Amino acid sequence: VVVEDQPDVSAVLSAYNQQGDPTLYEEYYSGLKHFIECSLDCHRAELSQLFYPLFVHMYLELVYNQHESEAKSFFERFHGDQECYYQDDLRVLSSLTKKEHMKGNETMLDFRTSKFVLRISRDSYQLLKRHLQEKQNNQIWNIVQEHLYIDIFDGMPRSKQQIDAMVGSLAGEAKREANKAKVFFGLLKEPEFDVPLDDEDEEGENEEGKPKKKKPKKDSVGSKSKKQDPNAPPQNRIPLPELKDSDKLDKVMNMKEAARRVRLGPECLPSICFYTFLNAYQGLTAVDITDDSSMIVGGFADSTVRVWSVTPKKLRSVKTAADLSLIDKESDDVLERIMDEKTASELKILYGHSGPVYGTSFSPDRNYLLSCSEDGTVRLWSLQTFTCLVGYKGHNYPVWDTQFSPYGYYFVSGGHDRVARLWATDHYQPLRIFAGHLADVTCTRFHPNSNYIATGSADRTIRLWDVLNGNCVRIFTGHKGPIHSLAFSPNGRFLATGATDGRVLLWDIGHGLMVGELKGHTDTIYALRFSRDGEILASGSMDNTVRLWDAVKAFEDLETDDFTTATGHINLPENSQDLLLGTYMTKSTPVVHLHFTRRNLLLAAGAYSSQ
Amino acid sequence: RGGAERSGAERCLSALQVMAQILKDMGITEYEPRVINQMLEFAYRYVTTILEDAKIYSSHAKKSGVDADDVRLAIQCRTDQSFTSPPPRDFLLDIARQKNQTPLPLIKPYSGPRLPPDRYCLTAPNYRLKSLQKKVSSSAGRITVPRLSVGAVSSRPSTPTLGTPSAQTVSVSTKVGTPVSLTGQRFTVQIPSSQAAVKSATPTTPTVQNVLINPSLIGPKNILITTNMVSSQNTTNESNPLKRKHEDDDDYDNL
């Protein structure tokens, strides 16, 4: 049984006859406030969820219908009652006093025309309905029906603590049906091919075509079972580029490195190697490191993109056409000869953007680099010539983040226009547009199987989108500030998210639930990364620390059975302290990027700030 | 408050205070001190522009003075020009629905670097070197191709070098496909002295094609303006590099 849905009113003026007399809004609100404050303890926490959305909606109605003085006094009287985590919103609202102010603010307009979702237990709802349907409360009942969507669940009413963990977004919580679609969170099968493994292969590894086939040590790569994982997407669900020879070589290298990987755990923490950007007066705004940890790129506020080589091997670009015509094309090492030794250097600077560069991403085959900027474009650079190849125009507003797909070819970008776009390198227009967020899309990440994209937004929600058809399959609420970092676990089942509220939240993708809350950081979390086998979660923050969390323990013994998932929430244990394995402080360098090498060494990056 | 009696400096100070208060109200706590000055400048310029526009609108409507409607109209017009905001939600949902209906395109295997058509890439050269001028048929004066260095013209088709001081006939021709190449375009740079015509010394001189020199287009500064693609004469020949069809732009006046 769900509250009867009123037909969605159009964005144009909603007749306020339905919503009662604006001069009486203060009375309606204080009447409801009195009722809720006098209700039973067990219901009060749930019913208190009504305060904020009703306050904002009623205030916006008054402003939109140009009752300026009523709006002002309404705001004065009740804004102090709201929860502390809504303070930023309230500050924005306090500056919106006229209808004209609302016009440029797309977020507030969207808020006004969408329904705020509340999740309330059946008992509490009955109580509320009975009260509001009494004749004298008819007006506020209309307002509630107009602007709120109440998702009822059968079960115990939630405590204030439980509610506080999950509310905070601009759109309320997520309806249960929004998280019911099937998600293929499993990984795609790795292609099997002969691996010429040699155990002591430090130098003499290149005996190609060794007939002896040693089985790789780990079974997660090249699994022997032929059964299809029911949670994994079919191999051809979305078209993926074929595996080139160079990719196969890379995979072989990967497997060899995997064999030497350090097993991490509470007893064996990773070593952390920190790359500090000194004298970054240009303002470091984005960092990325290649999968094999050979190159590091920095995006800067002066619109340059700088690529460094992390290894002693310098960065070389291809020779000019003139010189290329001179080389012997038949020689064995032609791939070496086309590289220009004269201009090899440790640093290459790429010019092209006309605004600060907010996101960078290497392609998995290390041939391309993406960068997105405040100028509204995403640029594709070649790492063989260190020149710009394509500028993808689509967002006409700042683009906050971009990432290549784990298999290359596709990439995603998210920006100020509140949508994320999926592109392919050979199409000048996006292939998919993911629209639904109420505010800027600040963070975009691919799932390891490349079939899903997670977007974090300034409206404090995380959405999971299906690449195949653009549908939103999951909505996760709980953060109290814009989300700035996302990380999928290597097995594809879980998602970790970090925001300006300093909390790391953990989500079970299959069930669509919040399964963990890691408290400890005191400032925005800009970097999150799982170790290569998912045993450790590393988080880096503006508070100049890197923290390591025990991911194995966080995800074991989850009570996700049918009963708990039906309600839409599970009991979160208060175990942040138990899960915290270590806190590592830098002198005064906020951590902007984290990366686990193939051997599970943790690399971190940030720009030294002298204050 | 007797504002008119206060000195200009005092008024300025209070404007600073007001701006600082506005920043505080909007929750901005950390900023460089010059931000306040910049914001004040912006506010002053914005208000002045709006009021000027409003005056224009009110005089157009033959009103005696500027009223609130004029100001409102002025603000609206300026907002549509400079302070655009992202598209509204229903529009985004609409285009998203359209885009997401088309299935994902299949990926052709083994197709080299996957880039959009050349038109949409930034890989084309964004400059063209001045084209080589062969014979100027008419005896309409001497055509001096200016700049670069002056010296004896030698038409040795040696190793192509661009921009070398020695007066050589140089040319560059490239193949399509190499990443740094100027895809397929041929052009030449000639650095002659006073001769208008250049003898070609190589036996394998392709004939000049598509040369259209309209003498009347030769401007006062003796700059040649060609309207067609000129294929070079003294090229070192990589045989048949691919040519890209272009319309010639006007040569730049670099005197």
TrEMBL record, chain A:
Presence of keyword Protein biosynthesis: yes
Compositionally biased region (Basic and acidic residues): 218-229
Residues covered by region (Disordered): 195-247
One GO term describing the cellular component: transcription factor TFIID complex
Localization in the cell: Nucleus
InterPro entries assigned: TFIID_NTD2 (IPR007582), TFIID_NTD2_sf (IPR037264), WD40/YVTN_repeat-like_dom_sf (IPR015943), WD40_PAC1 (IPR020472), WD40_repeat_CS (IPR019775), WD40_repeat_dom_sf (IPR036322), WD40_rpt (IPR001680)
Entry keywords, A to Z: Initiation factor, Nucleus, Protein biosynthesis, Repeat, Transcription, Transcription regulation, WD repeat
Main location: nucleus
Keyword Metal-binding applies: no
GO BP: transcription initiation at RNA polymerase II promoter
TFIID subunit TAF5 NTD2 domain: residues covered: 20-148
WD repeat ranges, renumbered to this chain: 277-318, 350-385, 392-423, 434-475, 476-509, 518-550
MF (Gene Ontology): RNA polymerase II general transcription initiation factor activity; translation initiation factor activity
Comp. bias (Acidic residues): 195-206
Function: The TFIID basal transcription factor complex plays a major role in the initiation of RNA polymerase II (Pol II)-dependent transcription. TFIID recognizes and binds promoters with or without a TATA box via its subunit TBP, a TATA-box-binding protein, and promotes assembly of the pre-initiation complex (PIC). The TFIID complex consists of TBP and TBP-associated factors (TAFs), including TAF1, TAF2, TAF3, TAF4, TAF5, TAF6, TAF7, TAF8, TAF9, TAF10, TAF11, TAF12 and TAF13. The TFIID complex structure can be divided into 3 modules TFIID-A, TFIID-B, and TFIID-C.
Subunit structure: Homodimer. Component of the TFIID basal transcription factor complex, composed of TATA-box-binding protein TBP, and a number of TBP-associated factors (TAFs), including TAF1, TAF2, TAF3, TAF4, TAF5, TAF6, TAF7, TAF8, TAF9, TAF10, TAF11, TAF12 and TAF13. The TFIID complex structure can be divided into 3 modules TFIID-A, TFIID-B, and TFIID-C. TAF5 forms the TFIID-A module together with TAF3 and TBP, and in TFIID-B with TAF8. Component of the TFTC-HAT complex, at least composed of TAF5L, TAF6L, TADA3L, SUPT3H/SPT3, TAF2, TAF4, TAF5, GCN5L2/GCN5, TAF10 and TRRAP.
Family per similarity comment: Belongs to the WD repeat TAF5 family.
Protein name: Transcription initiation factor TFIID subunit 5
Organism of provenance: Aptenodytes forsteri (Emperor penguin)
Lineage of producing organism: Eukaryota, Metazoa, Chordata, Craniata, Vertebrata
TrEMBL record, chain B:
Subcellular location: Nucleus
GO CC, one annotated term: SAGA complex
GO molecular function: protein heterodimerization activity; RNA polymerase II general transcription initiation factor activity; transcription coactivator activity
Annotated stretches, region: Disordered: 232-255
Keywords, in A-Z order: Nucleus, Transcription, Transcription regulation
Pfam families: TFIID-31kDa (PF02291)
Biological process (GO), any one: RNA polymerase II preinitiation complex assembly
Keyword Lipid metabolism: no
Residues of the signal peptide: none
InterPro entries linked to this entry: Histone-fold (IPR009072), TFIID-31 (IPR003162), TFIID_subunit_9 (IPR051431)
Presence of keyword Nucleus: yes
Family: Belongs to the TAF9 family.
Protein's UniProt name: Transcription initiation factor TFIID subunit 9
Biological source species: Spheniscus mendiculus
